[in-house]
Amino acid sequence: MKEIMVTLGSIEAVKEFVALTNSYPFEIDLVSGRYAVDAKSIMGIFSLDLSKALKLVAHADDDEIEPFLEKAKKFAV
Predict the structure, then answer these.
(1) pLDDT tens digit string along 40-50?
(2) Strands (E), the chain
């Protein structure tokens, strides 16, 4: 499991982020305060407060997560 902080400041960024997360088979969550949503769900993401940084939690082995984290750095805080 790995955690990084991300920001999704535009509709285009959310669309690109969801496309990225859906291309990986492991579970990925976004956490904002006490709310956690599936990072592969565009509707779930839009239910969060996108004006703040979100905690991304990827649930997989380190060797599986590294390629995803390289691409997700684009959204990192």
Answers:
(1) 999 999 999 99
(2) 2-6, 27-32, 35-38, 54-59
